[in-house]
Please model this.
Amino acid sequence: MTRLVFTLCFLIVLVQGLFAWNWPQCRNTNGCSPEQPTTIFLGDQKDFGCESWSTVNGKWPKWRVVINKSADIHNGINGSWSGYSNVDHKINTSPRFTSTGIWYWGMQVEYTDAGTTTGWYCHNNTSWDNMWGTPTSNLSVIVSPLNNPETQAASSASGSQINLSWAKDAQNHNVMIVRKLSSDSWTEPTQGTAYSVGQNIGSGVVVYNSNGITFSDTQLSASTAYDYKLYSENYSYYSTGVTASATTCPASQVNDYFRSKASGNWSNTATWESSSDNVNWLSATLVPGGAAKAITILSGHTVTLDQDVSVTLLTINSGAAFIAGEASPRILAATTLNVNAGARLTNNGNLTATTFNILSDATNGTGTFTDNGTTNTTTTNVQQYLTSGRNWFIASPVSGATSNVVKFNPSNRLWRYNDVDVTWDEITNTDTLLGVMNGYVVKPVANGVITFSGGALNTGAISISGLTRGTSGTKRGFHLVGNPYPSCVNWEAAFKTNLQSSMWYRTKNASTYVFETYNAATHIGTDNSGTAVTKYIPPMQAFWVRVDADGAIGTLGFDNTMRSHQSGIRLRSAESAEQQVLRLKVSNGVNSDVAIVVFEPGASDEYDKYDSPKMTNDNILIPEIYTMAGSEQVVINGLKSVADNTQLSLGFKAGQSDTYSIQATEISHFNADMKVVLVDKALHVEQDMTDGSVYSFTSDETNTTDRFSIVFRSSLIETGIQKVEDPGISIFRYGKGQFLVKVKGQTNEVGTITVTGLLGQRILTTRITGETTVLNTNLASGSYLITVKSDGKELIRKVVVY
Model:
């Protein structure tokens, strides 16, 4: 009887297997690796997938993801069923992963409401295979702990407030903060339990649970030490936590005045001294916070903000510097923040001020501000001190300034250059918006400040486009643009499209307006008197640029990486260079002009980016000189190299009959044997200008390139390399830029070895060390002269370093 029952059951199962159902099959998606996430963190739910038959015997399936800490996933945690669907590619979301470590998973697929057609994708199949009826899985993932927040900081703002800041983890999880007294112990949150603000966790209390990066904890007790633990939170699951601590200010000292005692970090008490009456000062016992009556950074001190602070009144005096957020993003919250004339403020974090004033005066110039973080201000005022009786070329440092900046006094005058009609359009109303990066000319009727206000400070990437150039007119393609920042900006680093590498200032020299030029390719600039002009454009300075070709359209842009503080923030400050430079000045005893010849390896003898076009003054009182690059008159002429007897035409322009002089005010890094000779072809006179001598002459009104030329002459190059018959001196290559000098029979240190460039710039001079001397010069690629002098013998040899 038992055997009969068994046989009947077997036949029923066999019939069902052969005739009732096809067994469903599955595989990895497209036959590849299992479709599972590569990274899972505690508290995550993730999508998993596989492929299985779309229908079996006409039945559509539904499916769900099942996970377990063991391979027996049949007893695991079930995800939600999908709806019935006729698809092969099945994706669904897992249950939440509630602990770290290895988890096993599988996809349960059911084709009818009966359990007989349920199958499992739970093995790593890359080809079609029957589903598993017994779900023991070999598919696994690793669940990682949550990463902690970073760069956490806590600082006292007053006797009742502590400010906190942090950076969220790389997965951008929310942050929960628990506070306790420093004398108490920590109790950790329970994983999977949700906590709200105000809820206790042991001796601590939850004070924050959200998605921000800053928090001010208020209503605290004075002179009390608090600990904070910051957790990354993911659906009520938590990281291990990181801590920060701070002590609130003493109640008796929170209303003190503070001023800097020395340069240093804000958090160091040695940086500060304090006073209860703003008269008698003592070394501080705490650092200033939000309850301090006033905080001043004195001239000559640099204070770096290395913690979060909120202040009522912060003033940065002339000659002082303040760096906000040097180490990491910080907060500076100020009711009033004054950057005094000549002072410098750098924001590397988050700066918030209700009123932000950048001040200016006649003595110290304008305060400067560079922004590498986030700046939020309710009211911004930027001053610029101007004197009457001259035109000033300016640009707005704020986004919403209007002509009222100047026309608050109707007698002040304001113009905008019209590059289409090549005219000046005067602005007479008070509501014309001053465009960002547009240049303007202001003529005030009295000495004093103009104040830019309206909108936010200009910061970040800013550009001006649509700079056009026609095909006719001697001044075509010139545009008056402006530095949009309250800081210096680097012309060489600027983003330039279809623009020449030169820029020009229009400035006043004594009683006469002249042009100053700087060329970014040759890294050199000059004013009409011969003083160097640097690559740094002063804050709020308007300047000229030129589109480089007829019909082209140019764009100019800056960003915060190009901004800086520069001493003096004036146009003229010396800048050293290791180039061969000839600087010529013409003068009539009152006014002067300059032309520069500079040698650059990348330059050509034709007109290119290393040349700066001459901006003529069109003033009969100012004599002018220039050279020619192709058919273009240039104030800076970049040439590749100079050969002996190179002759360069020197253009001369005079607006009236007078006595004039030409002088070489700079001859830098040329060979000592190189001579610079001025040729006056009208008088058949040559004069050596190398020693700085002045050549005087008379001229009627003229504009000529035929009268004067400059000739470069070198006796060393002219006579070639000196040779000595069997001097007993030999030079051998030892390595790149390294040589051995052998002097036969030399036993002492009498004699010298000199290495120079072909134009005479001295690289190295050393004494002979014996019969063999090693020159470890590490020379760059190029040609050089090595001169060896010993016991009356001399050898000069040209060497090439590749």
